[in-house]
């Protein structure tokens, strides 16, 4: 396949700036997967849409991540000097081995399976508390009243933020614009506003770290501070950047994951009836819901360190490739009728949490939060239903999610 020239038709379709595309990218992704699975976009990136190709790119060691080059391509040299860029440059997802290997060792120890499992009961308790708040109203916004505060509170527990200091983190106004992670640049005003919010968050994390050094506890923050004794390269800037990473990724993307799943489930009465008739399907249902409409639509931009064949396409050394997780999850080569939500689907595999060395370290936590959110609603509000109307989606592509989701019972 010749990837030297973009397809005019495909570029008209693949438009991450289009509201129509952001509201429902899947018809476009299906066309690309069928007709141009490695697509040269108008944004200078090659776009990969097939499951096998996406998995190959995110696992093959000949593809690397280059955060600076990706930032430079979108924002120019000036973009490298933004405050938000300096923080995100530390993120584990923006590193290659050996730095990635070293950082991941610390992160995996600090967010162990045991710690994630210990957060399941608090997560369920938060679900019940949030339902209690709206019980008399007989209506709620499943985003603002439920998924947003739920994921914020769980991340606060993980980071060890005291209960009387959590108000800032359960206010939607503190979350930086997720458009920062999109493959198209945001405007300068958005960048400045995001930088100001990130400065506020990092300043709090620095002060929290100072207290945790004196009085460490059983939490993610205290663990990273302890690990400094064995790894002097684990600087305070790196630690606070990863605290912010856990807040932004563990909160924003998980909130969207749960909201998308609730919309998918409660807007399909046939599937909801199946789950209510067979509650033991919940674990399978959770995986299928995550597959069906992922909150993380793209992996990070990868560049080829040498010429690499991906499927039938030759990726030249130095070319930038963007693997589309949302497209891969609906590849008919992997699943029969992938455009349909099927809670009884046998082994609904997906790439929502990535793969290989960069597999999401918080995947288990996000999954148990989604399970808790569904089971609590079903137990406490068995007649819950969406209020109807067209869903209002966030104006971002990389992190796909709902602005609001009104429900009643």
Characterize this entry briefly.
It contains 17 helices and twelve strands. By secondary structure, it is an alpha+beta fold.
What does this structure look like?
The protein has 409 residues and is of the alpha+beta class. The strands form four sheets. The chain has a five-stranded mixed beta sheet. It has a three-stranded antiparallel beta sheet with strand order 4-12-9. A two-stranded antiparallel ribbon has the order 6-7. The model is unreliable at 1-6 (pLDDT under 50). The longest helix has 31 residues, at 236-266. It has one domain: Orthogonal Bundle (Cytochrome p450). The chain has helices spanning 8-13, 19-23, 26-35, 51-59, 67-75, 83-88, 99-110, 113-118, 120-134, 142-159, 188-214, 220-227, 236-266, 269-277, 282-292, 325-329, 363-380, and strands spanning 38-40, 46-48, 63-65, 139-141, 302-304, 308-310, 313-315, 320-323, 385-386, 392-393, 402-404, 406-408. The chain is built from 17 helices and twelve strands.
């Amino acid at each position: 396949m010749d990837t030297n020239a973009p397809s005019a038709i495909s570029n008209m379709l693949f438009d991450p700036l289009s509201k129509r595309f952001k509201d429902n990218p899947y018809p476009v992704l299906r066309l690309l997967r069928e007709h141009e699975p490695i697509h040269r976009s108008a944004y200078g990136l090659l776009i990969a849409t097939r499951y096998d190709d996406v998995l190959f790119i995110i696992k093959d060691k000949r593809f690397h991540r280059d955060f600076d080059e990706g930032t430079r391509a979108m924002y120019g040299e000036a973009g490298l000097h933004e405050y938000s860029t300096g923080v995100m440059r530390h993120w584990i997802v923006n590193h290659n081995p050996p730095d990635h290997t070293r950082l991941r060792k610390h992160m995996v120890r600090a967010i162990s399976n045991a710690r994630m499992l210990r957060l399941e009961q608090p997560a369920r308790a938060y679900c019940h508390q949030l339902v209690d708040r709206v019980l008399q109203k007989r209506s709620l916004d499943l985003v603002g009243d439920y998924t947003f505060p739920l994921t914020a509170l769980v991340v606060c527990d993980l980071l060890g933020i005291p209960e009387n200091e959590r108000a800032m983190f359960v206010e939607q106004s503190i979350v930086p614009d997720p458009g920062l992670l999109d493959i198209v640049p945001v405007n300068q005003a958005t960048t400045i506003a995001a930088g100001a919010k990130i400065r506020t968050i990092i300043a709090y994390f620095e002060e929290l770290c100072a207290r945790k050094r004196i009085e460490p506890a059983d939490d993610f923050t205290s663990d990273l501070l302890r690990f400094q004794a064995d790894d002097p390269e684990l600087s305070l800037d790196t630690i606070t950047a990863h605290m912010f990473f856990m807040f932004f990724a563990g909160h924003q993307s998980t909130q969207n994951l749960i909201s998308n799943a609730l919309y998918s489930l409660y807007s399909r009465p046939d599937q909801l009836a199946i789950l209510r008739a067979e509650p033991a399907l919940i674990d399978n249902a959770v995986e299928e819901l995550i597959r069906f409409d992922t909150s993380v639509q793209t992996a990070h931009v990868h560049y080829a360190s040498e010429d690499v064949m991906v499927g039938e396409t030759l990726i030249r050394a130095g070319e930038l490739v963007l693997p589309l997780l949302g497209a891969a999850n609906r590849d008919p080569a992997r699943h029969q009728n992938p455009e349909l939500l099927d809670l009884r689907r046998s082994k609904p595999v997906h790439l929502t949490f990535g793969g290989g060395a960069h597999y999401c370290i918080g995947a288990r936590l996000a999954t148990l939060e989604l399970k808790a959110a569904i089971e609590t609603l079903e137990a406490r509000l068995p007649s819950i239903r969406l209020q109807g109307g067209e869903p209002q989606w966030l104006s971002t592509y990389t992190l796909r999610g709902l602005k609001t989701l009104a429900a009643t019972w």
